[in-house]
């Protein structure tokens, strides 16, 4: 039976604000692609002191020893909301991992990141989610060395809790707009901690690290890696929490707080890595300027950090929704500057695209789909060019069917709404028209 908790007016206001903002994280999406696999509720999965519901997504032909990703929703959200609003299920069809979607039943629909029971692994939501993981490991023969957690807002806080309580279970986490492990502890039965939310809990790296170590006395194994995302202008779980999380997880992983690597993958991002310079460094932190609590979710980047995209997926065709024709390089040309077009789908290599973990769409192995000349205006030609790693060669494949260029945010577009063979591809302001909708298959 769900427990209704009476909150102070300030807490209710804060939770309502979280609900409004985190709902804005996830845009209305077109229906999911048709797969036999569906979001499925599991009952009787084991000890469940948090009274959570368990949902799973098991992709078609999942294979042996799949990885497991626990995907935690935001306050007032649900498993279905997180499933519908993120790409973890669609990417699971490529990378063949299983997704667990916990769903809160209490009135606030916020995860329990405040009670001593949940923070110690003796009760609450952390125990319920651990039971879900155990169920999947046993039922599907999943890989115990590849279990991960991610989440948004309340789900990001839960991600910190899961890694803090169960370092022997979770190998890495990815937290979008969260707070450090134990920061939200209240001890009085309430769910909301204003001091933490407002970024007024300031501890040393050693103190934050000790919170994790003290939750795991006697543990001598490797500590989980952590990827952190936060908007500089977050006014719900304020930005100082980002620094405190960096301090916590660098200390836990035995490294200092001096970045070993810094870059800017997108114009308003600053990405830093600690304890290493590679894509699976012990701690990776992405700060987003001019961004509030509703920061954009980056499922592919999360999976890259988890190491689940290391083996490139099979090539795919990019099929136009309006034309049912494929993105094609004319006459199988390999020349830089060749403009992509629509053409009847075939099995030829000039229609075989590889989506890389960095967002490239490659053809022939070394040519990338490219916004010509770093263009950022309507009508910019979409061409192939030697892969360079530039943002004009990186693409977001979005849940609503659009493919947007990272450099300029414009949509891949069949020119003039054309559907015939030979229709040229350009970039254009996203409009919602079907000539800008695509399926990777």
User: Can you identify the CATH superfamily of the largest domain?
Assistant: Alpha/Beta hydrolase fold, catalytic domain
* Total DSSP E strands: 22
What is the beta-strand fraction? 15-25%
Q: What fraction, in percent, of the residue positions are helical?
A: 10-25%
> Architecture of the largest domain in CATH?
3-Layer(aba) Sandwich
CATH T-level topology of the largest domain: Rossmann fold
For the report, how would you describe the main beta sheet?
A: 10 strands, mixed
Q: Keywords for this structure?
A:
441 residues, alpha+beta, Rossmann fold, Trefoil (Acidic Fibroblast Growth Factor, subunit A), four-stranded antiparallel β-sheet, 10 helices, 23% helix, globular, disordered N terminus, hydrolase, hydrolase activity, Ricin_B_lectin, AB_hydrolase_fold, signal
């Amino acid at each position: 039976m769900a427990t209704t908790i009476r909150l102070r007016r300030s807490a209710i206001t804060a939770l309502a604000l979280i609900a409004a903002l985190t709902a804005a994280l996830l845009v209305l999406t077109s229906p999911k692609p048709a797969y036999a696999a569906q979001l499925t509720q599991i009952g009787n999965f084991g000890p469940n002191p948090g009274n959570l519901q368990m949902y799973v997504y098991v992709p078609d032909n999942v294979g042996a020893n799949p990885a497991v990703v626990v995907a935690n929703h935001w306050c007032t959200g649900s498993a279905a909301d997180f499933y519908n609003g993120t790409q973890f299920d669609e990417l699971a069809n490529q990378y063949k991992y299983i997704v667990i979607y916990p769903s809160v039943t209490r009135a606030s629909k916020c995860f329990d990141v405040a009670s001593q029971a949940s923070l110690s692994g003796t009760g609450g939501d952390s125990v319920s989610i651990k039971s879900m993981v155990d169920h999947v490991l046993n039922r599907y023969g999943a890989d115990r060395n590849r279990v991960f957690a991610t989440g948004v807002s309340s789900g990001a806080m839960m991600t910190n809790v899961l890694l803090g309580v169960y370092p022997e279970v979770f190998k890495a986490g990815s937290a979008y707009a969260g707070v450090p492990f134990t920061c939200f502890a209240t001890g009085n039965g309430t769910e909301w901690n204003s001091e933490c939310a407002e970024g007024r809990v300031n501890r040393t790296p050693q103190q934050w690290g000790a919170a994790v170590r003290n939750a795991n006395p006697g543990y001598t194994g490797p500590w989980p890696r952590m990827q952190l995302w936060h908007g500089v202008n977050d006014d719900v779980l304020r930005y100082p929490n980002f620094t405190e999380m960096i301090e916590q997880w660098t200390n836990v992983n035995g490294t200092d707080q001096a970045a070993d690597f810094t870059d800017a993958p997108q114009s308003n991002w600053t990405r830093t890595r600690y304890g290493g310079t590679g894509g699976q460094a012990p701690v990776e932190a992405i700060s987003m300027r001019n961004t509030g609590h509703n920061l954009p979710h980056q499922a592919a980047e999360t999976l890259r950090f988890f190491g689940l995209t290391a083996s490139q997926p099979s090539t795919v065709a990019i099929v136009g929704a309006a034309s049912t024709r494929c993105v094609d390089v004319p006459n199988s040309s390999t020349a830089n500057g060749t403009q992509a077009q629509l053409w009847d789908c075939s099995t030829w290599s000039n229609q075989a695209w590889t989506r890389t973990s960095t967002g490239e769409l490659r053809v022939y192995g070394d040519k990338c789909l490219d916004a010509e000349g770093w263009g950022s205006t309507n009508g910019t030609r979409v061409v192939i060019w030697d892969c360079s790693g530039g943002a004009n060669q990186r693409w977001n494949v979005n849940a609503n069917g659009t493919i947007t260029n990272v450099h300029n945010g414009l949509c891949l577009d069949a020119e003039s709404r054309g559907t015939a063979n030979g229709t040229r591809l350009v970039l254009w302001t996203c409009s919602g028209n079907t000539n800008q909708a695509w399926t990777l298959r």
